[in-house]
Amino acid sequence: LAASTLAVLGFFVIPYKRKQAKDNFKEKMLILRTKLLSALTTQFGNESESAITRLKDGVAPYTRYVRSERERIEKAEIALANLRQKLSELRARSQAIVGK
Question: pTM higher than 0.90, yes or no?
């Protein structure tokens, strides 16, 4: 009787428990892998946003400077165009006076 009980344990119960333990391990590993991937994705997202913010903050003074210089140059171009127009009008008037 003891030998047959050991045989049943050896052929059925122990392999069943081993398979059950493997399945349980696989399930826990899948859950762990999913949690790890989620944590890494979240951390990477946070770090990348932080890095982008630091870059933007670092470049902001130069961006403001370039913007203000562009506005200053645009105003100077408008003033230069107005002066050229007035100069052209003065030349035309002086040519009209000299040409008489």
Answer: no
